[in-house]
Specification:
The complex is a heterodimer of chains A (114) and B (123). Helices cover 0% and strands 51% of the residues of chain A. Chain A is mainly β. In chain A, strands 2, 6, 7, 8, 11, 12 and 13 form a seven-stranded mixed beta sheet that branches. Chain B is an all-beta fold and 123 residues long. Chain B is 0% helix and 52% strand. Chain B contains no helices and eleven strands. In chain B, strands 2, 4, 5, 6, 9, 10 and 11 form a seven-stranded mixed beta sheet that branches. A four-stranded antiparallel beta sheet of chain B has the order 1-3-8-7, with no helix packed on it. The termini of chain B are far apart. The chains are: A mainly beta (114), B mainly beta (123). The interface between A and B is medium-sized, with 26 and 29 residues.
Chain lengths: 114, 123
Amino acid sequence: DIVMTQSPDSLAVSLGERATINCKSSQSVLYNSNNKSYLAWYQQKPGQPPKLLIYWASTRDSGVPDRFSGSGSGTDFTLTISSLHAEDVAVYYCQQYYSNSPYTFGQGTKLEIK
Amino acid sequence: QVQLQESGPGLVKPSETLSLTCSVFGDSISSGTHYWSWSRRPAGKGLEWIGRVYSSGATNYNPSLEGRVTISVDTSKNQFSLRLNSVTAADTAIYYCARDRNLAAGGKVFDPWGQGTLVTVSS
């Protein structure tokens, strides 16, 4: 299995400040033939299902605010919220879709307001 | 707008079989465009992918659950189902169904997801 490890496990940030979440994969999820990293980020608010935010490590899904950005390649990735809004309180997960044996998620990072 | 909805018993006894169904609205499983997946989130833990099914009935499962899990499809009802046998307390979780949305260049991501259904394993 490709193990996904997120850091930190929890994070408290003031409104308007930057939040940064890291994700590391146990092996590269970069597909050399197309130079794309098969890495997605999801947001899960309390009582709701996960919502896709970012795929290909850095492509925002339709309708996702531009304060959310993803970066990284290979094995190391970052999700950044440039200016925290109250509605961003959630658990964030990274997920690799490089291998379906099996697809794997990080353990989640809980983001709260300081 | 594509929507998915899980249904099934919320309480299952230890050693018995968990059975859930996902109804799909706004997309057709029989079109063969997407795979359809089940995942779960145990209380206090992260997400775990269980497996997926294609319109033909072809499946892929998480090796950690293989041998206990069966995912099937009913294209006439536009539904797919999960069966997990010999359940224990460790299988208590919120279970989600989702569409494996195709991306250009061959990737697939989970979008959208159903609201999820809590299944508790207890006598």
